[in-house]
Specification:
Elements lengths: L4 H17 L7 E14 L12 E11 L4 E15 L6 H6 L2 E16 L12 E13 L3 E4 L2 E4 L17 E14 L4 E12 L14 H8 L1 H7 L2 H7 L1 H6 L21 E12 L9
Antiparallel strand pairs: 1-2, 1-10, 2-3, 3-4, 4-5, 5-8, 6-7, 8-9, 9-10
Length: about 290
């Protein structure tokens, strides 16, 4: 899920062009709405773009229409993401045996460009596909289950973080995606979109860099922390032949060995459908 910066740059110029090109009689107004969605995570525990653990999500939005083409939207959303190495087709990732779940809550400001002139209540121009891009801020707190209980992973310093130097659970990020809107009446419209949050953090899943020295972490964080660092031993106890069949050494968590990919930040994506109410007035008659 890499963000294509040249594409974003082109979209920005499209927005500027659209804003400067339309006449003063363009339709303006505010829309308020809510939506329900599914949300899926992509990152170090889902490197092959699986869609098998889509969590529930929802949100609210406030949109201002500058004209028939250009809008800005403020949104607030919440959902739950999760991932398990056991789902991966990659043998090494399955041996790594890590997992997490997290509530994600975010707010975002985005600019939208309508491909077609969009006029509320119009028989001919009451629908359009659209693209959007913006910035947001997200909250997350990854947890994992052990012995029947869920634990917040940040507190264990699973990649050797010193106390007081753990990663932040609030991060900024890009907001981008595409959608389709269509009028149900003059006031009401239906919006369907795919909306991504590309974080400026790689710790949504608590996985980013390399395995630390377990003894150092044990001295600092206790015995339980070392169990969350390298969970390959749990899989080995359940299926020791898995490691033999695939020629994987056990345990895999040697200090300095790759645990995640710090060069690729985490992403989560909403797949949503929403209902919006329009408060604007018509500035000129149309069919």
């Amino acid at each position: 899920m890499k963000l294509n910066i040249p594409v974003i740059r082109r979209l920005f110029f499209l927005f500027v062009f659209a804003y400067s090109s339309f006449q003063a009689n363009a339709q303006e107004g505010v829309e308020v709405g809510a939506w329900i969605a599914g949300v899926n995570y992509f990152g170090d525990l889902n490197t092959n773009l699986r869609l098998n653990r889509i969590g529930p999500a929802g949100g609210i939005g406030l949109r201002y229409n500058f004209n028939e083409r250009l809008c800005t939207k403020l949104s607030g959303n919440i959902g739950q993401v999760s991932a398990y190495d056991k789902d991966s087709p990659n043998i090494y990732e399955r041996a790594r045996n890590l997992s997490f779940k997290s509530i994600v809550a975010d707010a975002g400001l985005q600019f939208e460009f309508n491909f077609l002139p969009y006029l509320h209540g119009s028989k001919d121009n009451g629908w359009t596909p659209y693209l959007f891009v913006g910035l947001g801020i997200s909250y997350f707190n990854p947890k994992a289950k052990m012995d029947g209980e869920w634990y917040p992973l940040r507190t264990f310093g699973t990649e050797g973080q010193f106390k007081g130097e753990e990663y932040y659970t609030v991060a900024g990020g890009w907001v981008y995606g595409a959608g389709f809107k269509i009028d149900l009446s003059y006031e009401w419209s239906l919006n369907i979109d795919v909306s991504a949050r590309r974080l400026f953090s790689d710790y949504l899943d608590d996985v980013s860099g390399v395995y630390p020295d377990a003894e150092d972490v044990q001295d600092l964080r206790g015995d339980l922390a070392t169990r969350f660092i390298d969970r390959s031993s749990e899989l080995y106890q359940q299926d020791p032949d898995f490691f033999t069949r695939n020629n994987i050494e056990h345990p895999i968590g040697e200090p300095g060995r790759q645990r995640g990919n710090s060069r690729n930040n985490d992403t989560y994506v909403y797949f949503g459908i929403g209902l919006y109410y329009y408060f604007g007035d018509l500035k000129c008659p149309y069919d």
